[in-house]
From TrEMBL:
<dbReference type="Pfam" id="PF00440">
    <property type="entry name" value="TetR_N"/>
</dbReference>
<dbReference type="InterPro" id="IPR050109">
    <property type="entry name" value="HTH-type_TetR-like_transc_reg"/>
</dbReference>
<feature type="region of interest" description="Disordered">
    <location>
        <begin position="1"/>
        <end position="41"/>
    </location>
</feature>
<feature type="compositionally biased region" description="Basic and acidic residues">
    <location>
        <begin position="26"/>
        <end position="40"/>
    </location>
</feature>
<feature type="DNA-binding region" description="H-T-H motif">
    <location>
        <begin position="65"/>
        <end position="84"/>
    </location>
</feature>
<keyword id="KW-0238">DNA-binding</keyword>
<protein>
    <submittedName>
        <fullName>TetR/AcrR family transcriptional regulator</fullName>
    </submittedName>
</protein>
<feature type="domain" description="HTH tetR-type">
    <location>
        <begin position="42"/>
        <end position="102"/>
    </location>
</feature>
<dbReference type="InterPro" id="IPR009057">
    <property type="entry name" value="Homeodomain-like_sf"/>
</dbReference>
<dbReference type="InterPro" id="IPR036271">
    <property type="entry name" value="Tet_transcr_reg_TetR-rel_C_sf"/>
</dbReference>
<dbReference type="InterPro" id="IPR001647">
    <property type="entry name" value="HTH_TetR"/>
</dbReference>
């Protein structure tokens, strides 16, 4: 399977709950009607999402309010509600926005995360980058993954991650069960386990990444 094969039609099956199209970092999503977004509306969207992301990072997802987001973004609160309907819609939009940047980085960005590096280095870089993203958005990801027991696996992003890793694993160790190993490498990055390790057990982010490196090292074992 080639690198292009991992992208498919936007990098995820159309039946997935949030199958996100792969876009460039400055691309704007068209509204549901399919019409192009006005420049002022696109600017407001970027400001609102940036404000929400900053507030989540500094204060936590639990305290996020639409009024505060509007104040920080410098827009009317009605604009925030018209665009995202409610707090849950805003939170998922923040996730989707960051997800597009992440997908662009590992599918099209510079090596070792992007194409052009040794497959083993790419697997390590991908898992480290995903650990950083999980750290930055831990509570938000936990909320998204708590929708249902299968929420994490029904997400189009997870399928893209799995396919990406499966492709690289098959190149590193052709005899491996690449599909199983890909799931196994993603399992430690589930938000609930990640939060338990970081906040309950007190593991540092560096320790988590070192543990992921130990798992990846098994791919080269004789």
């Amino acid at each position: 399977m080639s690198e292009a094969d991992t992208r498919g039609q936007g990098g995820a099956p159309p039946s997935a709950r949030r199958a996100l199209p792969l876009l460039g970092p400055d691309a704007e999503r068209a509204p549901r009607g399919g019409r192009a977004e006005r420049a002022d509306a696109a600017q407001n969207r970027r400001r609102i999402l940036a404000a929400a992301a900053d507030l989540i990072a500094t204060r936590g997802v639990e305290t996020l309010s639409m009024d505060e987001v509007a104040r920080v973004a410098g827009v009317g609160v009605g604009t925030v509600y018209r665009r995202f309907r409610d707090r849950a819609g805003l939170l998922y939009a923040v996730l989707d926005d960051r997800e597009r940047d992440f997908q662009t980085a590992f599918l099209q960005g510079p090596p070792p995360l992007g194409p052009g590096a040794d497959p083993l280095d790419r697997v390590r870089a991908f898992l480290h980058a995903l650990a950083d993203r999980t750290e930055d958005q831990m509570d938000l990801l936990l909320m998204a993954e708590s929708d249902s027991p299968d929420a994490r696996f029904n997400d189009g992003s997870y399928e893209l991650y799995r396919m990406h890793l499966e492709t690289l694993i098959a190149r590193i160790r052709p005899s491996a069960d690449a599909a199983y190993v890909a799931d196994a490498l993603l399992a430690p990055l589930a938000a609930n386990l990640f939060r338990h390790q970081r906040r309950t057990r007190g593991m540092s982010l560096e320790r988590v990444k070192a543990g992921l490196d130990d798992l990846v090292a098994g791919l080269t074992a004789s």
